[in-house]
Amino acid sequence: MKDTLGRNINYLRISVTDRCNLRCMYCMPEEGVCKKEHRDILSLEEIYEVVKAYSEVGVNKVRITGGEPLVRKGLVDLIRNISRLGSIKDIALTTNGILLEKYAHDLKAAGLKRVNVSLDTMNEEKYSYITRGGKLGDVMKGIDTARKAGLEPIKINTVLIGGFNDDEIDDFAALTKEKDIDVRFIELMPIGQASNWAKKHFISNKTVLERTPELIPAGSDDPSSPAKYYRLPGGLGKVGLINPISHAFCGSCNRIRLTADGKLKPCLHSELELDVKAALGDKDRLQDVIAQSIMRKPMQHNLNSKDSRPIERDMYRIGG
Ligand code: SAM
Ligand code: SF4
Question: Quick check: CB of 20 below 6 Å from ligand 2?
């Protein structure tokens, strides 16, 4: 279905939980999250109902995210059911990778096509620091198992954090040299409670090009991808830059977000939320709220304007 600006909305990003087994500094408060009551979170059956309704208006791509999606019980079954719908051609997962070693084979068998793994440093101590306690070795084992399970292509998402990991740009880029892995640098966004932290540590993705001048522009397999791709000479994988701040990609945005507590977000950076939970079980209401989520999609975010304010909902409660 097209929105009022003619953008073809075919991509639903689903947050299946607010919970997480890490506490990344730019995403979650240290003390963790207030646990939501079971009844406030969409059941897996309800999520399936929303996906099915979106698939009827042309959504054919789904990404499962969170919080950490792999901590949600029953996730493999949800993926199997979405896969059986037949109309969703691409089912992907964004994960911190900690539990991938345990689930990669089951996820693949259930119909998951590919994974994006978030990894901001390849130094054990720094990893433990930024995630407040995570073990880098778990993520590395997870990536390896995902590759063996055939969850490809694997993309590594690295949030560029000034003074923290800008000294590792070369090391991350080098990962693409010998393996068919894409590494995508993402600009830090000011969102929720951690927005001041994000503003302090923001550096533009231009830094990646300055530090790695040998990168050569490369095409993308997916024209709606927000990443601009490059390749090292002879590299098997690609280096992507996702620049939501310095070069907004709103003009080609094709996505809607579903939060774990049952809200539809037409735009990541807008406070606009539509209550889909209340419409479940009533086909007409559900179709109506879905159509609204598409027709009310803002033209663009205004993060770069002087008086813009970060949205209040934290990233782990939206689904990045
Ligand atoms: N827990 C999973 C993970 O870390 O991949 C999925 C959810 S996490 C919210 C999704 C992505 O959002 C991660 O790649 C994370 O690095 C990114 N993210 C979180 N807060 C962000 C922020 N303030 N700016 C940019 N990216 C952010
Ligand atoms: Fe958890 Fe992902 Fe947020 Fe890190 S970025 S705290 S892993 S939800």
Answer: yes
